[in-house]
Amino acid sequence: MTSGKNGLLPPSFVSNLQNVLKNRKIEKPPEAEEQKHQEEEEAKIEAPAEEKTCIEDLERNEDLRPIVLVTNEDGIEAPGLKCLVEALVNGGRFNVHVCAPESDKSGSGHCLSVRQTLVASSVGIKGATAYEVSGTPADCVSLGLSGALFPWKKPSMVISGINKGSDCGYHIIYSGAVAGAREALMSGVPSIAISLNWKKDESSDSDFKEAVEVCLPLIYAAVQDTEKDLFPKGCLLKVDIPTHPSANKFSEHELGEMDDDLDYGALQQGFVTITPLGLTCNAELDAHTSVASWITTAIDQDAPTSL
């Protein structure tokens, strides 16, 4: 919706819109019906066709923005999530929704609350629709995508983070932040898990604001490409931000250069690392060869007659 070169609504339109909203909230007595009808007719005469179009655009504006669902593993009150949501809301590009654990669920992995009743409570976060849930990050994403809390069917992207602590190497197995993004991927929703390499006695909550500034361009590009069906399919992106975000470095690595410690080593050197993760954990080629050889040997042995 635009009006003029600066994109602002005309003052007359804003005044008329405020009056319309005010009149909707006030029930007029029966004896004032005739006067109300006359005022409505006058309002129709005064409101140009362009302003009526602006009203319709205004009502639809929020629905036109891409929907982003945010979760984390540190809990809904964690500074990492708060800084991320605040930046996404202030950016104005997305319709922001939040579904996060009510308490810290670090190290919960991909745990689901199978035999427990999940309780979701509305939480006030400026500019966003938010719920805290008595479950794990995977629970939160599953519930958020179920249609039970939010009116939409599917968000453009799920963002899990910003996590307090890196998720390099084997940490991805225990990470609730990665699990939240993985749960989204399992439902066919593009996702990103973001973590800050937090160090005791060296890091502070203000580092999360710098971390947000580092990852926002990536988020914008990811959502934009998701809308264009250009975002990589079949994987989630794990983003680790170095301890001092403002002094970060970027580096490109060919697949042949990768090894088990690449993301950890690069992170320690101040690089932002971006790692694609799939749903399955396939063994290395050597392991495949070894297992194939073992199976051949095992089935060639004399089997018990009972088999």
Task: Describe this protein's structure.
- The protein is an alpha/beta fold and 307 residues long.
- Helix content is 41%, strand content 16%.
- It is built from ten helices and eight strands.
- An eight-stranded mixed sheet has the order 3-4-2-1-5-6-7-8, with helices on both faces.
- Helix 4 crosses helix 8 and helix 5 runs parallel beside helix 7.
Concise overview:
By secondary structure, the chain is of the alpha/beta class. Helix content is 41%, strand content 16%.
Output the keywords.
307 residues; alpha/beta; eight-stranded mixed beta sheet; 16% strand; globular; disordered N terminus
Strand order of the largest sheet: 3-4-2-1-5-6-7-8
Number of strands: 8
Question: How many H/I helical runs?
Answer: 10
**Beta fraction of the residues?**
15-25%
Stretches with pLDDT under 50, minimum 5 residues = 1-14, 24-28, 51-56, 252-258
Largest sheet report: 8 strands, mixed
User: What value does the average pLDDT take?
Assistant: 80
Run of helices and strands: HHHEHEEEHEHHEHEHEH
Helix vs. strand class:
alpha/beta
Distance between the termini: 73 Å
Produce the secondary structure layout.
Elements: H1 11-25, H2 33-46, H3 49-64, E1 67-71, H4 79-91, E2 95-101, E3 120-125, E4 128-133, H5 137-144, E5 157-164, H6 171-174, H7 176-186, E6 191-196, H8 206-227, E7 236-241, H9 262-268, E8 273-277, H10 285-300
Parallel strand pairs: 1-2, 1-5, 2-4, 5-6, 6-7
Antiparallel strand pairs: 3-4, 7-8
Helix pairs in contact: 4-8, 5-7
